[in-house]
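Reading is simple: each integer encodes one residue's backbone shape. The lines below illustrate:
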Amino acid sequence: MLIEGFDELSMLITNYNYPYYPEHLEKNGYIKDIDWMEYEVKVPESIPERVAKINDAVLKRLNLRILEAKKSKDFLPYIKGIFLLLNEAYKDLYGVVPLTDRQVEAYRKQYFGFINVDYVRIILDENNKVAAFGIAMPSLSKALRKSRGRLLPFGFIRILRALRKNDCIDLYLVAVRPQLQSKGINALLLTEINKSAIKNGILKAETGPELESNTKVQALWKHYETRQHKRRRCYIKHVNDNKIDYIS
């Protein structure tokens, strides 16, 4: 349930609920189990040269390279590797269930047909396998709100316009192979996406929900100007000794 930020614009991938929803749950004995936080991140005006040099050193030291993609079709050979890595990197996070092949195919059809190559970075190892990736997209929230969630008759035009011209991007996913975590790759991915954001006149980015216990992803924002503006909660109620009810 959304518990903070009811007057904020939601991302495409998140749900909205009225303030009385969590109040109703709490009155009926549900309590907090865990929270997710969301941030608005200001895009910096430039990337310091020192940061660029550090990123180059990270790639060289770990024998990695960034995939040079010119169009969305260039990502197709790596889609399976992206989702395999996603399952591997997220497996120990609260509430995560591995994606099935059917779900992977559905997401491929739903998103990869209109992703903007400027905001996708894939890092490959010496065997041309996916070692890390970061995916962002121009925000579609305002376009969907104006269209009331409908594609027809004119909603799709607003969406196409938002994909081409926007001042906000949504940060969807970032994943790094477990053996390579805490080696600077997360920050490298973010910097690479930042370069495109600066080039395209992006002013801010919206993060997806981040577990409050996920200190690795929280650490990404320590060098940025941020605003923590939304919070979501999973509620739990112990019904008896053998049964637990979850609502999130």
Observations:
- The two ends are 5 Å apart (CA to CA).
- The helical segments are 20-27, 49-62, 79-90, 101-111, 141-146, 155-164, 185-199, 215-218.
- Residues 47 and 191 are 7 Å apart (CA to CA).
